[in-house]
Amino acid sequence: MLYDDLEKSINEAAKRFFSMPPMTCEELEGLRSGILDSINRFQEEKLNPAIQELKDNQEWDKFTIAFYGETGAGKSTIIESLRIKLEEPTKKQQQLNFLEAKLVNNEELLEQLRDGAIIGDGRSDYTLETTSYDFSYIDKKFSILDVPGIEGTEKKVWNEISKAISKAHAVFYVTSSPKPLQIGDDNVKGTLEKIKESLGAQTGIYGLYNKRIKNPIVLKKTAYSQ
Question: In whole angstroms, what is the distance from residue 202 CA to residue 60 CA?
């Protein structure tokens, strides 16, 4: 409704402008016609598509968070942990189905339903489509998006990445390296440029360094040393 009202107001203003009578001065009329052509072209090529994109992608009834970043940095692992910890509804149902499959010893179904099934297997571009998980806390609703990796074969997934980021109110950029994000050159875009291209004006972005630890004892030592 909001975008429909906005589009209607813009169209009414443009209609009034276009209905103005021609000017008697030939030079001024040429200037007026050029301005009208520019406005019409801007509306058709830029404004209307932008409004339609907001209609298609923007979320108003829940806060949307996208986990975005390098291929293999652990985005899906973090999201799976949050699903388990926060008891996301589809995860709870999946765990119940897992127990039922275990009772009948269905090995194939067990593999599909196990915790961590959404996590990659080491191959680049394991996540090719954005997956949304809905959560609620008290009376608040929010959604987490698992977005394809930025460092894979991006031509295959760029449309998915752009749609997801345009929906998000906040983005966690996940990296497995403590180094600052890199800037590209004339031939290759760096990570910063890629992020900037797909972020919406309303989106906040936060860095998340996902340090890989194989032995949980390291966590205890780190905690004691702080």
Answer: 12
Are 190 and 182 in contact by the 8 Å Cβ rule? The answer is yes
Whole-number Å distance between alpha carbons of 157 and 148: 7
The pLDDT of residue 123: 53
Tell me which residue has tokens 């009376």. Answer: 139
Burial 59-68 (b: 16+ CB within 10 A, else e): eeeeebbbbb
pTM of the model: 0.65
Q: Can you list the residues of the chain whose pLDDT is less than 50?
A: 223-226
Antiparallel, parallel or unpaired: β 170-175 and 204-209:
parallel
According to the model, what pLDDT value does residue 42 have?
79
Residue with tokens 């698992």: 146
The SS3 call for residue 112 is: helix
Q: Are 150 and 175 in contact (CB under 8 A)?
A: no
Q: What is the pLDDT of residues 13-34, one digit of tens each?
A: 767 766 767 666 776 667 777 7
Most distant CA pair in the chain, distance: 87
Going by C-alpha positions, the residue among 212, 207, 204 that lies closest to residue 74 is 212
Which segments of the chain does DSSP mark as H helices, in order? 2-18, 26-42, 48-57, 75-85, 89-103, 107-113, 154-167, 191-198, 217-225
